[in-house]
Write a structure and sequence with these properties.
Layout lengths: L1 H4 L1 H18 L9 H7 L1 H6 L10 H10 L8 E3 L5 E3 L4 H20 L8 H29 L2 H13 L3 H4 L7 H22 L2 H17 L8 H5 L5 H12 L2 H26 L21 H6 L5 H4 L4 H13 L1 H19 L19 H16 L3 H26 L10 H6 L8 H4 L21 E8 L9 E4 L2 E6 L5 E8 L10 E10 L9 E8 L2 E9 L10 E8 L9 E7 L6 E12 L1
Antiparallel strand pairs: 1-2, 3-12, 4-5, 5-12, 6-11, 7-10, 7-12, 8-9, 8-11
Helix pairs in contact: 2-7, 2-8, 6-7, 7-8, 7-10, 7-19, 8-19, 10-11, 11-14, 17-18, 17-19
Length: 604
């Protein structure tokens, strides 16, 4: 009986041991790469390269060139003056800081390069991430034990860790935002429970500070406020009572706000010094962003590319659990339900709804502390039901855990493709331990991170010629007659020559197109100016994305005609109303002659 009283503790210890041992054994030499590099950038810039304001990124380019941390430095953006800025907020860097300093000390003592990226830094950050994972699990157990028995708590811990995408993003990918956000969510929920029990100031302060840290990591996490605001609110009367309770704790609120201001002040000071504004949106990427008018709800739930319930089907039980939460604990239903719905909607409204190379839908893991409560109420319902229903439920649970673990293994071995999976590919590789070349043909088009895409399979596409212009029938001031042949001359004072533009949706309903532009060209340019370039891009109201600028080299002295052929793969499309645009940018400030212009569109 004593063992049963500590069952969830033993399960927790076992889980923490498995996660810790596994994580330490899979430390990569590129732990600090891609998004993680962006979160971490503040630390080496400030403490090693004497560049806290990120004025000169030559050191970063050198590090990236040597260590190959990312194909592009997208984690650096620009202010209105064209000066480099951090793309990500500094919230996660604050959590990295103590472990960065430990790594820096060990690097110096052990004779490793003190460059911010050598093994001591990598291992130190990983140890820190494991610690945050364990803290999150400890608080999750506290939450679950408050509502459920030891047995149910233990079962939920096992299901959540081994039956969902939690296992991927809080082990191999635990240096990303979701690990710390999960931990902070559990702290917010636990302190919300305790505050409503005893109304102690410390719990209110911890709630406010934790939410501030979440916002500093990811601003959309603001909606976690719904949990403490709506907790134990089942009527307007409850809400009025809560407001009066908060007024009785003005001192605690002022202390919490003071601490929060101190926490966010470095970020605001940085923004002010770089932009002149205390609040600044550094997420300036027209190709990726929040679009609440076009949420990808179905794709996020069940798409073969990353669908949450396809790759994490066990969480369907949590969704069913909302009904039993409503029936059994109505006082917390609104807090849990509205927090999840709003969070899900925001997550679904992100235009890159598949969230990179994540396993299933990564940011939903932040909501799992709430979904774990719902899952608990569903399990209690099952345990109170007939034996046949219990058997069916646990057979499904075991199968879903196995499926999750197997598909995770497939992902780690690139059998399950993290970017390009289609319905056909999913079923062709379902429960398989290897993938054939014919299977790979079923994937979505491969887009290079460096934007250098090669069009090698044109026979699989249908070609349509949208522009075929030899200018013989054209009447325009720019048309030149030479040896009975007409051509188009881009004059030295003409900056741009746009020759093709249309809405993407008018070209195809498919997810991508290949565009081939061909023409003959000759020209002159000033020696001090660069060559002109052919630009192919997608454009929307807030800017261009998928921008491809291709230098047009020619021999100015010989004045010979050169043949140009450029192929462009459209980016992930934000909206079918976005415009595909092709134009020549005359950067060289010289005359350029164009003839036999052809634009071909290839679609499946």
């Amino acid at each position: 009986m004593k063992k049963l009283n500590n069952l969830s503790l033993f399960v927790l210890i076992g889980i923490c041991a498995v996660i810790s041992v596994y994580r330490i054994n899979v430390v990569s030499e590129k732990e600090i790469s891609w998004d993680v590099l962006g979160y971490y950038l503040y630390l080496p810039a400030t403490f090693i390269y004497d560049d806290p304001m990120l004025k000169d990124i030559s050191w970063l380019k050198k590090v990236n060139s040597e260590k190959k941390l990312a194909d592009t430095l997208y984690m650096v953006t620009e202010n209105n003056k064209g000066e480099p800025m951090y793309f990500f907020l500094m919230g996660l860097a604050l959590f990295f800081l103590p472990f960065f300093l430990v790594g820096h000390a060990f690097a110096a003592i052990l004779g490793f390069p003190t460059d911010g990226f050598s093994p001591p830094y990598q291992y130190s950050l990983v140890v820190g991430a494991i610690l945050y994972t364990i803290i999150g699990l400890i608080f999750l157990r506290k939450i679950l034990k408050y509502f459920f028995s030891e047995k149910v708590t233990a079962l939920i811990l096992i299901i959540l860790v081994f039956g969902t995408n939690y296992i991927h993003h809080l082990t191999i990918k635990d240096l990303e935002t979701v690990n710390v956000l999960f931990m902070l969510t559990t702290i917010v929920v636990w302190c919300t429970i305790k505050w409503h029990e005893h109304y102690k100031q410390k719990h209110l302060i911890i709630i406010v500070v934790s939410i501030t840290l979440m916002i500093l990591i990811k601003p959309s996490e603001l909606f976690v406020l719904l949990i403490p605001i709506l907790w134990n609110v089942a009527s307007f009367g409850d809400l009025k009572l809560k407001i009066s309770k908060l007024f009785n704790h003005k001192k605690a609120i002022l202390i919490a706000m003071g601490i929060s201001i101190i926490i966010v002040s470095p970020q605001m000071i940085y923004w002010y010094l770089k932009t002149g504004s205390l609040i600044y949106d550094s997420y300036k990427n027209p190709g990726v962003g929040l679009d609440t008018l076009s949420p990808h709800i179905i794709n996020v739930l069940i798409s073969y590319r990353k669908g949450w319930l396809l790759y994490t089907p066990i969480m369907a039980f949590s969704l069913m659990g909302f009904y039993f939460l409503y029936k059994k604990n109505f006082k917390i239903f609104y807090a849990c339900f509205f927090y999840f719905v709003v969070s899900f909607f925001i997550i679904s409204s992100w235009t890159e709804w598949w969230y990179g190379a994540g396993y299933s839908i990564r940011p939903l893991i932040t909501t799992y502390p709430i979904l774990a409560i719902c899952l608990g109420y569903f399990i209690v319902f099952i345990h109170q039901n007939k034996l046949a229903l219990k058997i069916i439920f646990w057979i499904l649970v075991v199968f879903f855990i196995f499926l999750n673990q197997f598909q995770w293994w497939q992902l780690k071995h690139y059998i399950l493709n993290p970017y390009q999976t289609t319905k056909e590919y999913y079923w062709a590789t379902f429960l398989k331990n290897k993938v054939s070349e014919s299977d790979k043909d079923l994937l979505l088009v491969n887009r290079s991170f460096s934007s250098r895409n090669e069009f090698t399979d044109s026979t699989k596409y249908h070609k349509t010629v949208f522009v075929s212009e030899n200018f013989e029938k054209s009447i325009n001031d720019n048309i030149i007659l030479e040896d009975n042949n007409k051509l188009y001359r881009i004059a030295a004072n003409q900056d741009y020559y746009s020759f093709f533009e249309t809405e993407y949706g008018k070209l195809t309903p498919k997810d991508h197109l290949w565009v081939k532009v061909k023409f003959n060209m000759r020209g002159q340019k000033d020696k001090e100016n660069p060559f002109p370039c052919l630009v192919l891009t997608m454009e929307r109201k807030n800017g261009a994305y998928g921008y491809s600028a291709n230098d047009l080299h020619f021999d100015s002295i010989s004045n010979n005609w050169e043949k140009v052929e450029i192929v462009y793969l459209t980016p992930e499309i934000r909206s079918s109303k976005d415009h595909l645009k092709c134009y020549i940018w005359n950067r060289g400030k010289g005359d350029i002659d164009i003839d036999n212009l052809i634009v071909e569109i290839y679609q499946k």
